[in-house]
Design a protein that fits this description.
alpha/beta; four-stranded antiparallel β-sheet; 9 helices; globular; 27% strand; seven-stranded mixed β-sheet
C-alpha cells in the first residue's frame, strides 16, 4: 500500500484549478483561513483586527491571484485553535482560493501563511502533511486503484526508512473506512463508485492521515441529505471528542450555522463578518452577503440560527 506525494507531502491531490486536484502529486496541507480588510466586521468584539494568539494557523497580508487575475489582496486571517471553523459565501467569492493558499496548493503573490509561527512555504513536505490534512473540492484518483489502497495513502506522511507499514496503519485505515461508511467497498475500484461513495472515500483518506488540523473544501459535495448530516456529525465528533481543528467550506448556510463554532462570511474576496454563528448569521448579513431577503429564527432542534428565505411575492 504505497502512495506518491507531491511538494507539500500530502498523499493524493495535485492542485490544477480551483476545483480540481489529483491524488498522485499534491500541493496541500490543511488550513483554515479568511481574508480581511480594515472594514470587515468582527462579530462580538467590534474590532477589525483578529486576535492571533490562540491560532496555530494564520495568514498575513496575503495577495492571491491566478496568473494576472487578483482574487484577493491584503488578507489577514487566524484560525482559532481547536475550533470548527466554517467559511461561507456566494459562488466565486474566494473561499476555495483562500483554502488553497493556506494549504500550500496556491502560492501567495504576497504575504505568508504561518503554522506554529513557521512559514509553511519552507516546511518539509512530510512534516507539514503530518500536521495539516486536506480534502480538496474535487479530486481524481489514479486509474485502477481500489478503495482500500486509496485510503491507505493517507498514512504516507507517517512512513519512513525506519517506519514502514504496520498493524497500526492497517487499523487506522480500517477505522477511517468504517467511520465514513465505506468499509464494505474496500476491494472496489474507485472509478466504479458513485459520486457520493467517492466523496466518502476521499474523506476516509483524509481521516487516515490523522492530522490535528483538517481542511475540507465542500465535504458534502455529491452527498444526499442523510449522508451530508452523517459526514458533518463525524466532523463534529472529531472536533468535540478528539480536539481537532477543522476548517470547512460549506454552501449550506444552515448547516454552517448548526455545526460551526466559528463562522466566516465572505464576499468579493474579503471577509464581511466572523465570529460565533449566532452573532454572524443575521437577516441583514445574509442579504448583504447573498443578496437574499430572509428571516432568521431558532432551529427547533439545536437552537442555532436557521435561515428562512422570504416567500416569492
Amino acid at each position: 500500500m504505497s502512495g506518491r506525494t507531491g511538494a507539500n507531502g500530502l498523499p493524493g491531490a495535485r492542485g490544477r484549478t480551483d476545483t480540481d486536484a489529483r491524488t498522485d502529486t499534491t500541493e496541500a496541507g490543511t488550513v483554515m483561513t479568511t481574508a480581511t480588510d480594515a472594514k470587515d466586521r468582527v462579530a462580538g468584539d467590534g474590532a477589525a483586527q483578529q486576535d492571533t494568539t490562540a491560532a496555530r494557523l494564520t495568514g498575513r497580508n496575503l495577495t492571491l491571484a491566478y496568473d494576472q487575475r487578483t482574487i484577493a489582496s491584503e488578507l489577514d486571517v487566524a484560525v482559532p485553535h481547536q475550533s470548527f471553523t466554517v467559511v461561507v459565501g456566494p459562488n466565486a467569492c474566494g473561499k476555495s482560493t483562500l483554502l488553497r493558499a493556506l494549504s500550500r496548493m496556491l502560492k501567495p503573490t504576497r504575504g505568508q501563511v504561518l503554522l506554529d509561527g513557521e512559514d509553511i512555504a519552507g516546511m518539509q513536505a512530510k512534516a507539514l502533511a503530518r500536521t495539516l490534512g486536506l480534502l480538496p473540492q474535487s479530486s481524481i484518483a489514479p486509474d485502477g486503484i481500489t478503495v482500500s489502497d486509496l485510503v491507505a495513502r493517507g498514512r504516507y506522511p507517517h512512513q519512513g526508512l525506519l517506519r514502514q507499514w504496520s498493524r497500526d496503519d492497517e487499523s487506522v485505515v480500517a477505522e477511517s473506512m468504517a467511520a465514513t461508511g465505506v468499509d464494505d467497498l474496500g476491494d472496489r475500484f474507485v472509478d466504479e463508485l458513485s459520486g457520493g461513495q467517492r466523496q466518502r472515500v476521499w474523506i476516509a483518506m483524509a481521516l487516515a492521515q490523522q492530522t490535528p488540523l483538517l481542511l475540507l473544501d465542500e465535504p458534502t459535495t455529491y452527498l444526499d441529505i442523510a449522508h451530508q448530516i452523517e459526514i458533518l456529525d463525524l466532523c463534529a465528533r472529531l472536533h468535540e471528542e478528539e480536539g481537532r481543528t477543522l476548517v470547512a467550506v460549506l454552501h449550506d448556510l444552515n448547516h454552517a450555522a448548526r455545526y460551526a463554532t466559528h463562522l466566516i462570511a465572505m464576499r468579493d474576496g474579503r471577509i464581511v463578518a466572523r465570529g460565533e454563528p449566532r452573532e454572524v448569521v443575521t437577516a441583514e448579513l445574509v442579504e448583504e452577503v447573498f443578496g437574499m431577503p430572509c428571516r432568521v429564527i431558532d432551529d427547533p432542534e439545536t437552537g442555532t440560527p436557521l435561515v428562512v428565505p422570504a416567500a416569492r411575492r
